[in-house]
Amino acid sequence: MRALVTGATGFIGTNVVRALLARGYDVRAFVRPGADRANLDGLDVEWAEGDVRNARSVRAAIAGCSLVFHVAALYAFWARPRRLIYEVNVDGTANVLRAAEEERVERVVVTSSVAALGLRGDGRPADEAVPATSATLIGDYKKSKFLAQEVARAFAHRGLPVVVVNPSFPVGPYDRKPTPTGQVIVDFLNGRMPAYVDGGLNVVAVEDVAVGHVLAAERGRPGERYILGGENLSMREFLGLLAEVSGRPAPRLRLPAAPLIPLAYLNAAWSAATGTVPRLTPDTARMARHHMFYDPRKAVRELGLPQTPAREALRRAVEWFRQNGYVREGPSRRGGGRAPRRG
Is residue 289 predicted with pLDDT exceeding 80? Predict the structure, then answer.
């Protein structure tokens, strides 16, 4: 059975390709012209070039495929022009689903995000039923993922066999750009994190997320959403585990979130004037104070989602970053992180 993976060379996409190959699927990798293919070097995949914003190239790539995994997205909290994030994440999703409908594919798995879900006011982990609100949809990235998810649900309502998966905060190998979460790990390993804000996040091994995509295609119920998550950790716990697996000291200084917001606006203004990517944006400053905790039990129960311990997932991420030249102090002693871009 042939499966198309959009965003195949990105962090999650690469791991989905590998999970599919391990289970015996034929894989067609949909990539933008000129995209870095290093993450898939040596793998037995068929290549298709195009852009999710180009409906014609999307339909050509889907033709002859039984399954579609729509993973491609612009995962960034700073994109210029701003409309680009909506063109890729929302319009691109509509193009993929329309082509899948026209080609009568057997199943589509759409990669959404926990960013498209809500949070509980009492701090308990949120599940798929907690609705997003204006208070939780902070910034263009979250808004675009929510709108893309609504597009997927509309196609499911009219009969397309769509399953939506909502990864939390994946960590692990092949985070080449890296993603915003990966950049936090790289900054930690390079000693560029003297303090932290006491928020929280749900950490999941990217390999579990990838297997969860395949399980969603095989076992998921059309029209349903599944949180692909792992362990809920406060930022202090997250940094403590990083310290354990890396041998680097964890920062002890905890900062309040409120003073960071005006600094973030100054940083964003400077980046807008200079054409650089800010290390701190108003959106990320606002999100830092939230405990973004999620409940993956539906995916565990219905799909059989694996649950790798966060400590092991972070160990694999640290090992990969060190082996691939992102860390100045460590086995490779080379390079550094790069700004998040499209995958």
Answer: no
Report the distance separating Cα 273 and Cα 271, nearest Å.
5
Burial (Cβ within 10 Å: 0-12, 13-18, ≥19) of residue 279: middle
CA–CA gap between residue 63 and residue 77 (Å, rounded): 33
Q: Are 20 and 41 in contact (CB under 8 A)?
A: no
Q: What is the 3-state secondary structure (H, E, C) of 161-215?
A: CEEEEEECEEECCCCCCCCHHHHHHHHHHCCCCCEEECCEEEEEEHHHHHHHHHH
CATH H superfamily, domain 2-171+204-230+293-307? NAD(P)-binding Rossmann-like Domain (3.40.50.720)
Point out the least confidently predicted range of 40-44, 122-126, 257-261, 317-321.
257-261
Q: Which residues pair with 84 in a beta bridge?
A: none
d(CA 124, CA 130): 11
DSSP 30-48: EE-TT---GGGTT---EEE
Q: What is the mean pLDDT of the chain?
A: 89
Tell me the HSE value of 323 on the side-chain side, using a 13 A CA sphere.
10
The span from the CA of 121 to the CA of 205, in Å, is: 26
What is the Cα–Cα distance from 188 to 302, expressed in whole angstroms? 36
Do strands 2-6 and 67-70 pair parallel, antiparallel, or not at all (unpaired)? Answer: parallel
Beta strands in the chain (DSSP E): 2-6, 26-31, 46-49, 67-70, 107-111, 162-167, 169-171, 195-197, 200-205, 225-228, 231-234, 253-255
Say which amino acid occupies 245.
V
Radius of gyration of the chain (CA): 19
